[in-house]
Specification:
- The protein is mostly helical.
- It folds into 2 domains: 1-43, no CATH class; 50-82.
- The protein is built from 3 helices and 2 strands; from the N terminus they run H-E-E-H-H.
- The chain has helices at 4-8, 30-42, 63-80; strands spanning 15-16, 24-25.
- It is extended.
């Protein structure tokens, strides 16, 4: 099964590094990554009740991890009063 890197950068050479903080890595030109990020952000379709929210998760196994990130960021915001 292809991962996120291969999904967004099909021609990338992906390396598995057992002793690194991230298991998979690649090296790509900054402008290539920026273009893909811009295209991906532009394709987001906000479809919440007020047109301001999206929560579309293709791989449902990731949902609890994304929720943990959201919860951590919400807690930080509350604690820092921002």
């Amino acid at each position: 099964m292809k991962g996120d890197i291969e999904h967004f950068f099909p021609s990338a050479k992906v390396t598995r590094m057992e002793d690194a903080d991230y298991l998979y890595r690649t090296i790509l030109p900054r402008n290539t990554v920026a273009a893909v990020i811009a295209k991906t952000v532009d394709a987001i379709n906000y479809c919440g009740a007020h047109g301001t929210s999206f929560k579309s998760i293709v791989d449902k196994r990731r949902a609890p991890f994304y929720l943990n990130v959201w919860d951590t960021m919400a807690e930080m915001q509350d604690r820092l009063n921002v």
